[in-house]
Amino acid sequence: MALDEMFSNQSEELRACYNDLMKRCEVHLDKMHQKLPPPKDRWNEILNSHGVSRRDFLKWCSIMTAALALPPVFTPKVAKAAGMANRLPVVWLNLAECTGCTEALLRTAYPGIDDLILDTLSLEYHETLMAASGYQAEECLSEALEKFAGQFVCVIEGAIPMGLNGKYLTIGAKGKTGYEIAKEVASKAAMVICIGSCSSYGNIQAARPNPTKARGVAEALKISTVNIAGCPPNATNFVGTLLHYLLFGALPALDRLGRPLWAYGKRIHDFCERRPHYDAGEFVEEWGDEYAKRGFCLYKVGCKGPYTYANCSQVRFNQGVSWPVMAGHGCIGCTEPDFWDKMAPLEKPMADHAPLPLAGVEATADEIGLGLTMVTLAGIGAHALGSVFRGVGKEKGGEE
Amino acid sequence: MISSMKKRRQGRAKPLVARKQWSVAMCINHWAMAVCIVILIISGLYIGRPLTIGAGETWQKFSMAKVRFIHLIFGFILTALFIWRIYLAFFSRFHADWKDFFAWLDLKSVYHQVKFYMLITTQMPEHTGLYGTLQSAAYGFLLLMVFLVVITGLILYAALYRAGLGGAIYMFSRHLEGVFGGLAGARLIHHILTWGFVLFICVHTYLAFWYDIVSKRGTISSIISGRVFEHSDI
Ligand code: SF4
User: How does the average pLDDT of chain B come out, rounded?
Assistant: First the structure.
């Protein structure tokens, strides 16, 4: 369907806006097509060899188009961009992390199309996946940095420890610190994507008391990054951001914390399948109780879905099979900064949270509130008695 | 003390007159806020720790949503009342009392007031402004609490409701969230403030009655009728 036809009953303004966007997209895709290095394998062949039909691929493309909040006319462009994704040079750094993100994104039993894109990314450097090691690996990196300077996408997984001058994390034969490596690579990259909550905000490494002074990449290097938060994040969110970059040569709209709004604009709670139970006042009281079996809402066993911006409830994990709340445990808020400190205790509702970030203060807001109220009432009683005893206001009272 | 007692004895001869202290707007604002805050405390504590209703089909029930609805409605009324109160503080035609909120800056009278409250002295400190020194600090603090609870409430509201007001303040509130440490932080502060209001109500109610008894000016009835009683010099 042509663009004009589709927006025939829309306002002129909207049509002009999308026309502009379409033109920009076409120009940019052509530019990328010429600029990017040739693919190692052709995308259609990759799809074929994995048994993905063209129809399935296009279906996926229309889903991604909708996810990126673009009108359906953009679907062919998204398909083109997706086909180009394996030509985009990527340098993937593993800093202070558990490799869980890599595992989650690359290890799939039955790869979906986002996983295929991730599998076939033109990874110039990825410590977990590359064959080279030691000096050889470092050569690969410096080669890639030179060859694709200003062109490659730097993906960082893991936080950067800043304590001891960064010495809590040294990598490779030359013993460079994580900070040095990240700084060098990021300075030459076209853009920096932080994958996972560690590189985005520090995550568990940065949780109190944070002995290594771990920081998120943006904070440590004082640069702006796209943060695909989550522990681990969803492949769809990463691939969507890449597609957006390929389509328009620009980053998608980001929120205050550098997360793409199209993926992190709404809360878990807003699209949770247990939400009707929440509104109905049906809550799991205890793990494994009757209500848990009936699939009630997990709010009272500490679900942090209402405070967490992410699209897990919409896209789910492992080819859309399931996600934490569906599996029966509340959301722990892993896409939010400092969630280990802020969302803890993870299995208690917010009313049971300690208001003071002091070590050893375990009392909850409600306990402290109730305690203070009791003390106040006792104080009032004592004061009233005292007043009678002291005869405050008596001298006037006697007169009237 | 003796001299003050004398003064008061002399005052006996003087006639008792009613003097207007609160405008009608102020009285309405006070009671509307009081009702709102009580409803909000109860519904708010319920939302923090809702009851599970096991019986019946899910589609027949809507308890949590209804309590939240009440909470939101009264939350918005409180927001409006707060704005009205601030307006009155600056532009009331009867008495714009914003200056009276700073009586606590006079540290000497604070000292005297504390002594009076602690029952160390039985001599009631006179205040020139509308509020006593500690009273002014407490009321100022209350307005600050209302402000914070309204702001955190609006942040939590905008996180869900994207049409109308929620949509209009969405981007702003997403930025403001950061000040409170994300939605979780805003939610915790919102919850802690609830207890602040509970404490305020306890102390405020007690002291209002206490003052009524001690000062014999009809403090309690003044917030309904708007008038206090005084021995006139004329
Ligand atoms: S399980 Fe969590 S996210 Fe889902 S409705 Fe309940 S509180 Fe919200």
Answer: 85
pLDDT > 70: what percent of chain B?
Answer: 92
Nearest CA in chain A to B117: A383
Lowest mean pLDDT among A319-333, B62-76, B161-175: B161-175
Nearest one of A186, A178, A240, A214 to A337, comparing CA atoms: A214
**Per-residue pLDDT tens for A214-262?**
999 999 999 999 999 999 898 889 888 988 988 988 888 898 899 999 9
Tell me the shortest Cα–Cα distance from B106 to chain A, in angstroms: 24
Contacts of B71 in chain A (CB under 8 A): none
Alpha-carbon distance of A177 to A212, in angstroms, equals: 13
| Interval between CA A310 and ligand 1 midpoint (Å) | 13
CATH number at residue B60: 1.20.950.20
Query: Does any ligand 1 atom lie closer than 6 A to the CB of residue A333?
Result: no
* Centroid of ligand 1 to alpha carbon of A207 (angstroms): 25
Cβ of residue B214 closer than 8 Å to a chain A Cβ: yes
Mean pLDDT of A57-84: 89
Judge whether B110 and A379 are in contact, CB under 8 Å.
no
Residue A397's pLDDT is: 40
What's the CA gap between A170 and A30, in Å, rounded?
Answer: 41
| Backbone torsions φ then ψ of A369, nearest 5 degrees | -60, -45
Q: Which domains does chain A have, with CATH numbers?
A: 34-263+375-391 (3.40.50.700), 268-371 (4.10.480.10)
Q: Is the pLDDT of residue B102 over 60?
A: yes
Chain B residues inside the 8 Å CB shell of A281: 50-53, 61-64
Distance CA A385, CA B6 (A): 27
What is the domain range of residue B133?
21-231
**What is the model's pTM?**
0.86
Enter the ipTM.
0.84
Residues on chain B touching A390 (C-beta within 8 angstroms)? 119, 122
From A365's Cα to the closest Cα of chain B, the distance in A is 6
The residues that bridge with A157 in the sheet, in sequence order, are A94, A195
Q: How far is the CA of A393 from the centre of ligand 1 (A)?
A: 56
Structural domains counted in chain B: 1
If contacts are CB pairs under 8 Å, which of residues 140-199 in chain B contact chain A?
A: 159-160, 174-175, 177-178, 181-185, 187-188, 191-192, 194-195, 198-199
B122 closest CB neighbour out of A270, A304, A390: A390
Instruction: Write the single-letter amino acid at A350.
Output: M
Q: What per-residue confidence (pLDDT) applies to A357?
A: 58
* Helix or strand holding residue A126 (H, E): strand A122-126
List phi, psi (to 5°) of B81: -65, -40
**HSE-up (13 A, CA, CB side) for residue A157:** 23
- Cβ contact A282–B54 (<8 Å): yes
Answer whether A349 contacts ligand 1 (Cβ < 6 A). no
Q: Residue A304's pLDDT band (boundaries 50, 70, 90)?
A: very high
| B123 in contact with chain A, both atoms CB, cutoff 8 A | no
pLDDT at A7: 61
Long-range contacts of B131-139 (CB under 8 A, 24+ apart): B131/B97, B131/B100, B131/B101, B131/B103, B132/B103, B133/B103, B133/B104, B133/B106, B133/B109, B134/B104, B134/B110, B135/B103, B136/B100, B136/B101, B136/B102, B136/B103, B136/B104, B137/B103, B137/B104, B138/B200, B138/B203, B138/B204, B139/B101
In a domain, B10, yes or no: no
